[in-house]
Write a structure and sequence with these properties.
Blueprint: H1 3-28, H2 40-62, H3 76-115, H4 120-141
């Protein structure tokens, strides 16, 4: 099977998934823009997934992707991708235990210092700034509850 057919099948599968999530989000209720319901975020996610699936499907119909156009990173770049993915999975498991502040700060420090190989001063300042801004935006302004350290 060629890449064009693979891309079309994957795009169709994600389009079906997007439709399923879309319908489920409507059942949950979208709410209002100022007072979003439980289905608002899944609705936006389904909309994004559907648009991206359509783009992939249409680009696959337009022309075949050759093997030369596909690039899977080699060496250090492959290692960075795998390290980033495994770190994000670990973050998902420890977030409720460590809490948002400590867990996210450690995640960003690790990604900036180890994966992106940034200097300590930049890594610390960017990680702290990102945690602070996201807390102010979501925790204070939008009143989104964050996981607390050891559940307290």
């Amino acid at each position: 099977m060629n890449m064009k057919r693979y891309n079309m099948l994957i795009a169709a599968g994600f389009l079906i998934l997007a439709c399923y999530i879309f319908l489920g989000s409507i059942e949950l209720g979208l709410g209002q823009l100022r007072n979003p319901g439980a289905g608002f975020f899944p609705f936006l996610s389904a909309l994004s997934l559907g648009i991206l699936s359509l783009i992939l499907l249409l680009s696959s119909l337009k022309g075949a992707v050759t093997q030369e156009q596909l690039h899977w990173p080699k060496g250090i770049h492959r290692w960075r991708i795998m390290l980033t993915l495994s770190t994000l999975v670990l973050y998902a498991f420890v977030l409720n235990t460590l809490g948002y502040f400590i867990g996210t700060l450690l995640l960003l420090l690790f990604l900036l210092k180890v994966v992106a190989a940034q200097k300590w001063a930049l890594s610390i300042s960017v990680a702290a700034f990102a945690v602070l801004i996201t807390y102010l935006l979501f925790g204070v302004w939008l009143n989104v509850p964050f996981p607390k350290f050891l559940g307290h």
